[in-house]
Amino acid sequence: MDLKLKVVGIRNLTPDIKRFELVNADGGSLPAFEAGAHIDFHTDKTHWRSYSLANKPGETDRYVTGILREPQSSGGSKWMHEAVKEGDILEARGPLNDFPLDMSAKSHMLIAGGIGITPMLAMGYALKAAGADFHLHYCTKAPETTAFMDEVKDVFGDNVTFHHDGGDPSKGIKLAEVLKDQPEGAHVYICGPGGLLNAAREAASHWAEGTVHFELFSSAKAPEDIHIHEAGDQPFEVELKSSGEVFTIPADRTILEVLRDAGVDTVYVCEEGWCGTCEVGLVSGKADHRDECLTDDEKEANTKIQICISRALPGERLVLDL
Ligand code: FES
After folding, report:
1. Ligand 1: does its nearest atom lie under 6 Å from the Cβ of 120?
2. Phi, psi dihedrals of residue 243, rounded to the nearest 5°
3. Angle in degrees, CA 298, 52, 149, rounded to 5
4. Residue 88 · residue 6 · CB < 8 Å
5. Is the CB of 194 under 6 A from ligand 1?
6. Could you tell me if the CB of 306 is within 6 A of ligand 1?
């Protein structure tokens, strides 16, 4: 859903993280959201960037999010930090939820790294309200770089463990221990930068299928086994279903890069095949699925594609539902 959001509050939570509070610019209620949901902002009118909602699910009078200023930001977080002021009206859309809680779980373990706390805070509100069994591990460098500290303490009470590693992950959370035994019926939710995500997913690799949920945050480094471009990649064509426009994707560029440069509306976060944000429907053509988001069955079904990383199989032409 397209939204116009008015910024009614901006507060520094840490030197690099700001809290934004937004209301419906037209007055009235906002669409309700569930824990784990995000809003896409049309940052600097050129890019759509996703930011998770941190406030209490069900609140329709405001949205709250926390935004980390990323050092290599190409616009999104830099623009939000530097250009956006209280009273501004931002174009946005959503809310969408790619990171929902599974309320059928017997217990919920949440692991947040840095700004990955934002969806976890909303999850904390939801789990507390449901009387669920839950615990948060919140990993940051130091108390002074821990966003939403007081609110987290308030919402989670005894159900939170803070881990401060001083910038050395080996001194932080002991993932192998924390995730060693999967309590019966437990689910784990992980949100943070790529390093934490990789380590946590590996430590939980023996957990039952469907019980490990994750969302990438921050400009994570591509894991070693992800190849955005490979030797032998060939150019191929993609067609947009709505307009019939055809684009040639060179061997050394991604579908996302080409469409973005052409001014086609795209949404993305990681650009490394992890987060699922750039997913679009695939109408025809066989894709070479290189992402980490789709299951093997979904790749086999070939009805959607992560355009930041996946390509066409040799000789195939892709028609995208755009
Ligand atoms: S932008 Fe993250 S999977 Fe494509």
Report:
1. no
2. -105, -15
3. 130
4. yes
5. no
6. yes
CATH of domain 107-216: 3.40.50.80
The residue contributing the CA closest to ligand 1 atom 3 is 273
What does the pLDDT read at residue 276?
81
Which atom of ligand 1 is closest in space to residue 267's alpha carbon? 1
End-to-end distance of the chain based on CA atoms, in angstroms? 16
pLDDT (0 to 100) of residue 222: 35
Q: Which amino acid is at 156?
A: F
Span from the CA of 289 to the centroid of ligand 1 (angstroms): 12
Fold held by 236-320: Ubiquitin-like (UB roll) (3.10.20)
What is d(CA 27, CA 33) in angstroms, rounded to the nearest whole number?
A: 17
What is the pLDDT, as a whole number, of residue 223? 37
What is the C-alpha to C-alpha distance for residues 109 and 127, in angstroms, rounded to an integer? Answer: 11
- Is the CB of 254 within 6 Å of ligand 1? no
Q: What are the extents of the domains in the chain?
A: 2-96, 107-216, 236-320
- For residue 226, what pLDDT is reported? 44
What tens digit of pLDDT does each residue of 33-90 get? 999 999 988 877 767 788 999 999 999 999 999 999 876 555 678 889 999 999 999 9
CATH 2.40.30.10 is right for the domain spanning 2-96:
yes
Token digits for 272?
A: 């490394």
Please state which of the ranges 268-272, 280-284, 313-317 shows the lowest mean pLDDT: 268-272
Do domains 107-216 and 236-320 share one topology? The answer is: no
| Residue whose token pair is 């992950």 | 169
